[in-house]
Amino acid sequence: MRRRRIYEGKSKVLFEGPQPGTLVQYFKDDASAFNNKKKGVITGKGVLNNRISEYLMLRLAEIGVPTHFVRRLNMREQLVREVEIIPVEVMVRNVAAGSIAKRLGLEKGTNLPRPIVEYYLNNDDLGDPMVSEEHIAAFNWAGTQDLDDMVQLALRVNDFLSGLFLGVGLKLVDFKLEFGRLWDDEEMRIVIADEISPDSCRLWDLKTNECLDKDRFRHDMGRVEEAYQEVARRLGVLPEAAPVDMKGPKLVR
After folding, report:
1. Are 116 and 106 contacting, i.e. CB atoms less than 8 angstroms apart?
2. In this model, does residue 15 exceed pLDDT 60?
3. If we measure between CA atoms, which residue out of 47, 42, 77, 12 comes closest to residue 240?
4. Which is nearest to 200 in space by CA: 78, 27, 79, 71?
5. Are 30 and 20 in contact (CB under 8 A)?
6. Distance between CA atoms of residues 127 and 125, nearest Å
7. pTM, to two decimals
8. Strand, helix or coil for residue 110
9. How many CB atoms lie within 10 A of CB 213?
10. What is the C-alpha to C-alpha distance for residues 143 and 125, in angstroms, rounded to an integer?
11. Domains plus CATH for the chain?
């Protein structure tokens, strides 16, 4: 059965869902870095991210954090609620890594004095530039109350996931979240959208500081598939299928 494709991004495809107000989110193995300048394929990534994101979204729901996630459908797809995406990514940083280390001359791995929240405009063509609350308000990308809700949720997620990952020997260095407006009749609420996975989080081994996330792909560190598998294994969600089984069907263009 051919489904209507709604949107295709760098790592996922959204299809029309079975019920009104729902979408099917398909996880690809495609990987990109440096605002799409570097591209590749990480075999089995879609399967692993589907499982990891499902697990983390369900755990967040248990503590009352609203998300767009409904349920996982199969190895590569999940059912999600259709939301109006807010074009601002919220980044929470606990440890200096990536761009903040370069910008502020911090040594990579330095613990930050407290979690630092940053905003980036979600626009690949512009290279996802960093923006301020002033920009967000002036260009009406999100209202003041929306932004307050987003930051509050992001910090709650940070608290919870930091503890969860700590419990399996991982350090949550930083992560980015996307948010959407979910409409129930006339009521609107802000919910977490997209995914939470090693694509969107920096995760280091607690003892060795070994990187177990997309930075391995970004910086040609090798053993990328193994890093994603290790995160899934520690969370207890590694699929029984071998990596060779994870290639999945080719998407019909």
Report:
1. no
2. yes
3. 47
4. 27
5. no
6. 6
7. 0.92
8. coil
9. 24
10. 24
11. 5-83+223-247 (3.30.200.20), 84-205 (3.30.470.20)
Task: Give, in order, the Cα–Cα distances in Å from 111 to each of 106, 149, 238.
Answer: 10, 26, 30
Distance CA 46, CA 246 (A): 8
Phi, psi (rounded to 5 degrees) for 51: -70, -45
Enumerate residues 6+ apart whose C-beta is below 8 A from 127.
Answer: 35
Between CA 151 and CA 170 the distance in angstroms is: 23
Sign of CA dihedral 82, 78, 35, 59: positive
H or E element at residue 133: helix 133-138
Confidence of residue 184 (pLDDT cuts 50, 70, 90): confident
Residues 169, 154: Cα–Cα separation, whole Å: 22
Q: What are the helix (H) ranges across 143-250?
A: 144-166, 215-218, 224-235
C-alpha–C-alpha distance, residues 198 and 173, integer Å: 11
CA distance 70 to 143: 26
Q: Which of 8, 21, 6, 1 is nearest to 79 (CA)?
A: 21
Encoded tokens for 135: 């920009």
Return phi, psi of residue 234, to 5°: -65, -35
Q: Distances from the Cα of 190 to the Cαs of 59, 83, 145, in angstroms? A: 18, 9, 10
pLDDT tens-digit series, residues 105-147: 999 999 999 999 999 999 989 999 999 999 999 999 999 999 9
Per the listing, tokens 């193995």 go with 29
